[in-house]
Amino acid sequence: MNRALRVIASIGIAVAAGWAVHGLYLRHVCNIREIQAERLVTKLFDINDQITARIAARDTVEIMNRCVPCAPTDINQYMIRGAALRMLGRPDEAALDYRRALHLDRRAELFLNLGRAEMEAGHDDAAADALITAVYLVYSYVDDLPQPMQDRVRNAVTPTYLMIQQGRAPHAVLEQLSDRVARDPR
Questions:
Q1: Eight-class DSSP state of 71
Q2: Of the four listed, 63, 108, 139, 173, which is most buried by Cβ atoms within 10 Å?
Q3: 3-state per-residue secondary structure call for 105-146
Q4: DSSP symbol at 183
Q5: pLDDT per residue as tens digits for the range 148-173
Q6: Gap between the Cα atoms of 84 and 53, Å rounded
Q7: Which residues 6+ apart lie within 8 Å of 37 measured at CB?
Q8: Peptide bond into 148 cis (omega under 30)
């Protein structure tokens, strides 16, 4: 009886160790793939050959599709896959990835990328909402937006931004901005 319990305990420990090693190995592999994919996506912006860029973007999406389940809270993987999807002309799918990342973190660059993806998809109101939030967080982003969206965002943000800079913004305005960042984009 005692021997049987030891054998069962040994088997349980071996299975648990196997799962731990397997999980750690997959995470390690995904970390390496994430670094490679991030470098590749960065290079894609410099590639003049459309075919090569599309192939590389498609490969990046496939790699990230395998890695995201291993680390579903890794924002960078969503951002890499979103950028690759945009390069493939799939802005709606990219917007979903940016929204998933926004559930984990409220970075200005996520709002900016979401806004750009929504703009590429032809969803101007959703794009403006995300871009306005991004510009509230980092005002200099407004200079990188194409017209007429730049004027739309600048007109929405500048009056409030100036009130805050001048110290004239009522507490309610600051609460509204905080709520804006905390809520899910439209």
A1: -
A2: 63
A3: CCCHHHHHHHHHHHHHCCCHHHHHHHHHHHHHHCHHHHHHCC
A4: S
A5: 999 999 999 999 999 999 999 999 99
A6: 9
A7: 60, 63, 64, 80, 84
A8: yes
CA neighbours closer than 13 Å in the CB half-sphere of residue 9: 6
Q: Where are the domains of the chain?
A: 1-70, 90-186
Exposure b/e, 152-163, CB count within 10 A at least 16 = b: bbbebbeebbee
CB 64 within 8 Å of CB 81 = yes
With contact defined as beta carbons under 8 Å apart, do 129 and 149 qualify?
no
**Whole-number pLDDT of residue 19:** 56
Greatest pairwise CA separation for the chain in angstroms: 79
The pTM score is 0.79
